[in-house]
Amino acid sequence: MALHLFNTLTRSLQTFTPLDPAGKSVGMYCCGPTVYDFGHIGNFRTFVFADLVRRYLEFKGHSVRHVMNITDVEDKIIRRVRETGKSLRDYTGEYETAFWADHAALNCLRPHGTPHATEYISEIIALIETLMTRGVAYRTDDGSVYFSIEKYRGRGGHYGRLLNLNFDALRVGERVKSDEYAKESVADFALWKARAPEDGAVCWPSPWGEGRPGWHIECSAMSMKLLGASFDLHLGGEDLIFPHHEDEIAQSEGAGVQPPGQPFVKHWLHGAHLLAEGKKMSKSLGNFYTLRDLLAKGFTGREIRYLLLTAHYREPFNFTLDGLQAARTALGRLDECKRRLTEIAAGATGKVSAATISEGQRILGEFTAAMDDDLNVSKAWAVIFEEVRVMNAFMAVGKIEPNVAAHRLTICDQVFGCFGLTPPPPAVEAPAEIAALAAARLAARQARDFKRADAIRDEMKARGWVIEDTPKGPRLKRA
Ligand code: AMP
Ligand code: ZN
């Protein structure tokens, strides 16, 4: 069966067909974090969703190029930089490091491209210049540049593809400068923001004077640079539909760089929000959780990931600590079944009957059919838990052959791999001299002597050990 995904562009389920004529390669962009604070578990719901889309496409045999940007300059960041007195790079660097550690704790695969907005300023400026040349962007007296919705529409552009907008309410020529605004304020939006006194040192030269890019143009420039002017999939949380993604379409298609008849993006996927304890997460309500908060309570990234993957991505999901506790129990049940199968499979000879193979195909077939239905994880988990129930019943009476157990384990591995829930290998004890090097590296990092820390890391690598920085501290692994 073909994969069907809900496309926000058409508001319907559509068969997913890549632009690649061979049907194999897929370009996928997900709007990444704004690194101004630690990521909360709502943010990570979206990144786990993106990771699932990638893993499932790979499971189906596609070769995915996954790009996720790091927003390291926008309104919120500038405000924090001003408040803390730090440099932009120092401020965002700290939260970016934390973000990647959290991302890894949730076993999300590192995207193939992770562009930073501040490294794409020349591409951003070039894109704005193209928009000006095409008459859909204009400079204002203060040296800012805005996108003209009226001119874009006049040239046949369709603004409001993702969200039905009421253009009678559009106040022609009105402008909105801030990066985030509601649909009631549909207006020309900023592509380039002239330097304001409160921006401090955060500015770059441009043909229009010193300033900085608007948030929306950053994603247009980076996604098209790394995936081409027209690509397959664009993801994000539902809050990004308007204005961020609507503006991305207008800017990217307004530049007229796509091959004739091709859109900027073929399929737009949006994940619903995560609520916490029944309400929008907020610090004042005491229901605001960063990933770190949950790790500090003793939960593992794998348990949190499992919980996030029990809900369909288009359904709002209510996070509770009780729910996380229940997720731990359910995952424990899966692991225990796998452990017992592994014990039985120790006696396997490698001979598998046709009936066992066909039963395995049935299970994988049902799993795939569920996931092909717009990533219906609830149905997919129902298939898996039914198998766990059946196998537990057979194991209870000693009725599973080692060869059958071994074959079922291969299915387990495929399903766990697809969900990114493969249990981590047992920790290896490092020899004393390697542990000493790791401690010396940590001390160097704490003293901000990154050169020495890197040299120690290289020395460890030469001795066959790598070090991973996790939210629970550095972890040693064999290289
Ligand atoms: P930000 O770091 O604010 O730019 O957000 C990063 C990603 O998290 C975006 O794709 C947002 O749409 C998404 N996001 C923000 N809040 C939530 C939430 N409560 N639930 C799910 N996704 C969210
Ligand atoms: Zn974006």
Question: Any overview of this molecule?
Answer:
With 479 residues, this protein is an alpha/beta fold. The protein folds into 3 domains: 4-271, HUPs (Rossmann fold, 3-Layer(aba) Sandwich); 283-419, Isoleucyl-tRNA Synthetase, Domain 1; 432-478. The protein is 45% helix and 15% strand. It contains 15 helices and 15 strands. It has helices at 41-59, 75-84, 88-105, 121-133, 149-154, 215-227, 241-254, 291-296, 301-308, 321-345, 354-372, 377-396, 402-419, 432-446, 450-462, and strands spanning 4-7, 12-15, 25-30, 63-68, 137-139, 145-147, 175-176, 188-194, 211-213, 231-237, 265-271, 274-276, 317-319, 465-470, 473-478. The strands form 5 sheets. Strands 5, 6, 7, 8 and 9 form a 5-stranded mixed sheet that branches. It has a 4-stranded parallel sheet with strand order 4-3-10-11, sandwiched between helices. Helix 9 packs across helix 10 (321-345). It is globular and about 80 Å long. The two termini are 40 Å apart. Zinc ion binds at residues 31, 219, 244.
Overview features:
four-stranded parallel beta sheet; binds zinc ion; 3 domains; 15 strands; 479 residues; alpha/beta; binds adenosine monophosphate; Rossmann fold; Isoleucyl-tRNA Synthetase, Domain 1; five-stranded mixed beta sheet
